[in-house]
Specification:
single chain, about 400 residues, alpha/beta, Rossmann fold, OB fold (Dihydrolipoamide Acetyltransferase, E2P), 2 domains, 9-stranded mixed sheet, 5-stranded antiparallel sheet, 12 helices, 18 strands, binds S-adenosylmethionine
Length: about 400
């Protein structure tokens, strides 16, 4: 039954989402309580982490786990992956409609996340979503959620779901194409380099053929090391093409320093916990509920970069680690325009420095900071630089 009230657009997801997801699960005869879902969620997590064979979690148990846990957890990843597009005005409803192609949509967590990102920014209008997936059962469950939720804050969500075999019916270009946690599932039999080549080619073709000139292609992946390093390898290949603009998360197109460091990987870990109502299930399934981790790429065709829209300031960098606090100093790993050029720097500030500490002490992973002059590794004297937090793009907003 359509909800008379719009669903809340807050993150973490409000209690109204818990009631809605439970009612969709019950209508399908699926388990919905934390006690019943703990086992299926733990099994599904093992499969996604490569600790159990894929076939070991199928059918209604897996679908129930996806609806009751993965969906409400992953909506925030979709919302946060487009946050910079929304806050910079490059993804906007403006009272009209945003067309979205959600590839490997599953239950539609990415599309719902995009709706939340727009609604949270106070926008009104609609999302006209096309979902493509090989799993029709998953899409049906997601369709039931969207039918019941039809409006999220000021954003209406309408959709059509297509089997991957009918994907060509989704003709034309879209304002936003999003592929959430699907790259990980594709072409696993290939070797590392060949698979990265294949995925870079696929993304280039998708960007050229399915994304409008001022639109974006967003790829979201789990923050696991192997998945994220694969995304870094794909990024490396994409950067060889001038037709591809890298909007975010990187502030430069130079080689990824994390990829160049054996065993390293660069991912988001935003200060956004699971909704309180989901914590008992996470706890029962032995999963974390603190922080939101994922990796992502936002690609465009029109040359607009986060660097160009974020700030005129020099020395723009992103915080790419948590603060490393040791005796007498506070250190952070930064990536962007550093004193040594595009790449990473690891400056530290001594505790005995008292002045101008605001931006340095409050910055969290994902934040953008500007330093004039640009910052390098080693001791940073805050009285010798102008330091600014680019607040409207902070992940805490
Ligand atoms: C981990 S789920 C992610 C679902 C959703 N995008 C999200 O982020 O929550 C991956 C989805 O990709 C779909 N998938 C896998 N291979 C596919 C293919 N070749 N074409 C379309 N969808 C595919 C799966 O059926 C599954 O629903």
């Amino acid at each position: 039954m359509p909800s008379p009230e719009p669903l809340s657009a807050s993150l973490p997801l409000g209690d109204d989402w818990q009631a809605l997801l439970a009612s969709v699960a019950r209508a399908k005869g699926w388990p919905a309580s934390a006690k019943e879902l703990a086992g299926p969620v733990a099994e599904l997590s093992k499969v996604y982490n490569g600790l159990a064979p894929e076939g070991s979690s199928r059918g209604d148990r897996a679908l129930a786990a996806r609806l009751g846990f993965s969906f409400p957890r992953d909506v925030a990843k979709g919302a946060c992956a487009v946050r910079e597009l929304v806050s910079s005005g490059l993804l906007a409803a403006h009272g009209g409609s945003v067309s979205v192609l959600d590839i490997g949509a599953g239950m539609g967590a990415m599309s719902v996340g995009v709706a939340i990102a727009l609604a949270k920014a106070g926008q009104r209008g609609s999302i006209d979503a096309t979902w493509v997936d090989s799993d029709l059962e998953a899409m049906r469950a997601g369709e039931a959620v969207v039918r019941a939720a039809s409006r999220i804050g000021g954003i209406e969500l309408s959709l059509r779901g297509l089997s991957h075999r009918d994907a060509k019916e989704a003709s034309g270009v879209f304002d936003l194409v999003i592929a959430g946690q699907v790259l990980s599932e594709l072409d696993r039999a290939y070797g590392e380099a060949e698979r990265a080549d294949l995925h870079a080619e696929w993304l280039k073709t998708t960007l050229r053929e399915r994304v409008s000139h001022s639109g974006a292609l967003v790829v979201v992946e789990p923050a696991l090391r192997d998945r994220t390093r694969h995304l870094h390898r794909v990024r490396e290949r994409l950067m060889a093409s001038e037709a591809v603009t890298l909007f975010a998360p990187c502030l430069h197109r130079a080689a990824c320093p994390a990829l160049a460091t054996k065993g390293d990987w660069c991912h988001e870990d935003l200060p956004l916990d699971l909704p309180e109502w989901l914590v008992p299930l996470a706890r029962a399934a032995g999963l974390r509920w603190e922080g939101l981790t994922f990796s992502y790429l936002v690609l465009r065709r029109d040359g607009a970069t986060l660097r160009s829209v974020a700030s005129n300031a020099r020395g723009l960098v992103r915080v790419v680690s948590s603060a490393l606090v040791s005796k007498g100093k506070r250190e952070m790993l930064l990536c962007g325009e550093t004193a040594e050029g595009p790449g990473r720097a690891r400056p530290f500030v001594l505790d005995r420095e008292r002045d101008n500490r605001g931006a340095w002490d409050s910055a969290v992973r994902g934040d953008l900071l500007s330093f004039d002059p640009p910052v390098g590794s080693g001791r940073l004297a805050l009285d010798a630089v102008r330091t600014e937090l680019v607040d409207d793009l902070s992940p805490r907003r």
